[in-house]
Amino acid sequence: KGFLLKDILDYCKAPAVSESPSAATHEVSLEGAMPLAPVKHVHFQGADTDAAGHFSVSVPYAMALADDRQAIVAYEMNNAPIPRDHGYPLRAIVPGTVGVRNCKWLNKVSVVEGKEAQTVWQQNDYKNFPSYTEKPDPSLPSVYAMPVQSAITEAKYATKAAVPGEGGDSKEVIEVQGYAYTGSGSGIQRVEVSVDGGASFSQTALLYKGNHSKEVRPAAESVGAPTGMTNVSSDASFSPESGRGKDWTWSLFSASLDVSKSKCKPTEVNASKQNGELKTSTGGGSCCWSVCSRAVANDNAAQPQYGSYNFRGLLYNGYSCKEVCTQ
User: For 293-314, b where at least 16 C-beta lie within 10 A, e where not — what string?
Assistant: First the structure.
């Protein structure tokens, strides 16, 4: 939970976006109103420092104040004060943006005309690097959103006995759990699962989000904020009727895969040296499947088998796969 960033800037009399080419800066110390100036980017500064100075990043003004994002300055996480590792006492949350843009230990917000944050975290470390680039390039566009992706967090082999009175045989199953996400705001349409390393997908997992209902109440009831400022939770649900996505949360998924008749790969369990060379043979009854997940978003963006290469390893979103064996 937190205060809408839009309300904070309105309270501090931050101006609307201007087309003026000036490089004026409007700083908001959260302690009162400041002089007016043209703005285009919202800069967030954290209390943490290193040799390069204060941590500082920025997002486009229109992104930070978009009604469908509801960016907030958060003070609670899971109905408790934000833990220190997550940014206590305040953290900027701009839904749909990558984690680095959601500044922890927030102590200053600035709105600046025509200029991103000039820090290493904005200009060097988190850029959309092409595959042929081998070093940071400030001229490249900054990373703001994550591509569609999924990750298997648990995959286990089990046997299920036949249900009495229903006939049939016992089954071999693989129980899969994980999460899926897209930074586009469109939300996850489905997660497909495979037991042959992604060569084929034959089942769609069950998707669920738990309770993500939005809570809105006057902020003054909780931390004594100025009257009229709104306290909101940062999540929102995909709304097909709106014609645009605003689903900024991950989806959890689960699947029970019947592998009774699926081919599996015998494990190499026996090893010995012959003429100085290591020889392996199969045996022991153990058999393995390569279980993979592939997410598809509501805008039909699909997770690829392999993500695009870049020297920093950013934004990788290839299939998530785990080997699951009978023993």
Answer: bbbbbbeebebeeebeebeeeb
